[in-house]
Amino acid sequence: MTTGPLATGSAGPDTVTRTAGRLVTEPAAPRHRPLRAPRVVLHVFLLVMAIGWLLPLLWGAFNSFRNYDYTATHGYFSFGGFTLNNYTDAWQRAEFGEKFLNSAYVTVPAVLLTLFLSACAAFVLARFSFKLNLTLLGFFVAANLLPPQALLIPIYKAFNEIPLPTWLNSDGELLNSYLGLILVNTAFQIGFCTLVLSNYMKTLPHEIYESAAVDGASVARQFFGLTLPLCRPPLAALTTLQVTWIYNEFFWATVLLTDGDKFPITSSLNNLRGQFFTDYNLLSAGSVLVALPTLIVFFILQRQFVAGLTLGANKG
Length: 316
Description:
Elements (H helix, E strand, L loop, with lengths): L2 E4 L7 E6 L2 E5 L10 H27 L4 H7 L10 H9 L2 H32 L5 H11 L8 H10 L16 H24 L4 H9 L4 H12 L1 H16 L3 H6 L23 H21 L1 H8 L7
Antiparallel strand pairs: 1-2, 2-3
Helix pairs in contact: 3-12, 4-7, 4-10, 5-7, 7-10, 10-13
């Protein structure tokens, strides 16, 4: 058995081994790029930013398991006083069970309605050519540039005048109803989702739609049976983002809801603060409980979320 180098590309020479009269080429291990000053600076910068971003979150989660009396005596930089009472007390005092349901009543329909309407609008903008195509897309994007505070008074007055059946809202109007909050969140989120989905749908090959049309597939069949399955990565990424944004939304809830029993989960943290005293360990435990649903959604859709964020990264 004899060996010898075989020149190749930048990965280095391969090793040629003669075994039983046959030449076997063993690829060499790829070379690692040398660490240069800009690369070291970049890695240090990313490490510092990651630590700066995660440290407050991890510190809050750590103190959520600690007794306030212990930290008041020994300081927050001590170690000890661990307990689970903060979580049980936070759940009871903030009425998280009821508030979680209130947030679900708003978040789930709003996310589904936003994604469906955005997918419909994006399909039309991506697959059909007409004069107002770009104008309509610009209209959707421009709607996101309006600050919500500028529309507060007209939306409040309009919702106060729009009647609703009593089975939808006992007050008989759109104000102080879950439906009103769903419509507002949908209206403010549909522009961003339409932009993302339309850009992705434009990358889908036209040939598959031509083949579907030849086979007799209608426009609705092309949308539901062809486009939506292919748009799974961006839909998963948008689902994660929309759940986070709508679930954490608090501005419109305080404006359009007048009944405290309908307030979402974000309002519960205020119940853990006293007028003259705040137990920050208890507040940290409540914050962890509030963040759990969005974390669960992220970990469930993590693979599709990352794929959706990297769409088009290898094009060009």
